[in-house]
Please model this.
Amino acid sequence: METSSGIRNAIEKIGEEGLFLTSFIKNTFKKGFEWNEFLRQCYKIGYMSLGIVLLTGFILGFVLTLQSLPTLKTFGAENFTPNMVSVSVIREIGPVITALICAGKIASGIGAELGSMKVSEQIDAMEVSGANPMQYLVVTKILACILMIPLLTILADGVAFLGGFVGINLNGGMNGLLYFRKTFQALSFTDLYPAVIKTFFFGFIIGFVGCYKGFNSNKGTESVGLAANAAVVTASVWIIIVDAIAVQLTSTLVYN
Amino acid sequence: MDNIIELKGLKKAFDGNGVLKDINLTVKKGENVVVIGKSGAGKSVTIKCIVRMIDPDEGSVKVFGKEVQEMNDDELRELRIKTGFLFQSGALYDSMTVRENLAFPLERVLKIKDENEIEERSKEVLEAVGLSDAIDKMPADLSGGMRKRMGLARTIIVRPEIMLYDEPTTGLDTITSREISELIMKVHKQYKTTSIIITHDMACAKITADRIVVMEDGQLIAEGTYGDLQRSEDELIRAFFK
Model:
């Protein structure tokens, strides 16, 4: 009995998410796109996340270099540290860590913002006035995430190389020109484009999950916290799942 | 007078609990109908059905002679523009200033782009609700009474024909409640609105009502003027006036 009601709830939830997705797509192409709100969201999601993303990227490159150096030294291959760090950062660690950081900062923010708007009847007020909350609140946020997360990831990757350079120079040292030549020599276009493509999906997940959880939160102050929390957890899990699928697809279609 | 709102045999249940059980109500053009009743009687659900924020399980909701359940998106949007809804909390957009709150429905609902017109209409409604000095304030800087006035200003800026008030005086002191009640009457006269006012506040009902209907457990149990109901033989109804 419990199992069947659990299955029914799960199917209902998938149905609700499907309807929300359909409504997002429909409203994206509807007349009267909210350009000003979209640009405001780009600023809020992109520019306001720059500090934490750059700091994380720098530390990522720095730590990865420090962790790799001793092992590579054992094989006398410490000169290949920049190559290894750049491939790891671009293909995997940069996009995933940036997306997870953004899930924590952006998805929770969106979930809490829309959740509190729901609780204080602001979304109802918008809807009942004849305005379109989906177009104003949801479309702009999701599209801003889709655009900003790839840009933030590229910046984080760049700063991670810088972190790697600092790391390597604190433990032996390497000429800047040589370091960056090795960094970029190790990379090919096939490393870059699958990684960039998946960040668009990560951006969509962060925006969509944040908006869905906030927009569908229950009425009550507790639900604001729950919406924010659920947004982070769900977005993070989906980022990891989508990353696994992307890696498998890339390995099969690009690297083979 | 024409019937602007007609509710017939309205029924609604949430998780098997009947909230509305056969509601029948008509409101004539220019009339102020006050709905009183205990918490949970189904008052708010009733007015939410009028603008299709909630779909009834059974029954008919006709506004301006059209069946609300059969309206397409454009017709529903048009109905919502003609029907102002004042929420209990005011429901101000808290990330926007008062000016932006007022411009929001003009730009997005009426598609007015002329900044002078937006400014003029904003000043007109702020003056009507006595908040002329608050135009650049944030909602967080406003008191409870001011938020209600501001919510009312944002609602009337699109010049609706029907006003639905969901407990407009709840949480306010006696003096401010009286001011809001008088404001409802001012809006009614100035904008010639037809109104349904949900309230527990009998002072508000006395000031605003042409007719009062009493709701109990999802049903309308009595109807009349303030004086009629005050003299009712039913103790339950008289209890509201004590």
Remarks:
- The mean pLDDT of chain A is 92.
- Residues 32-255 of chain A form one domain.
- Chain A has one domain: 32-255.
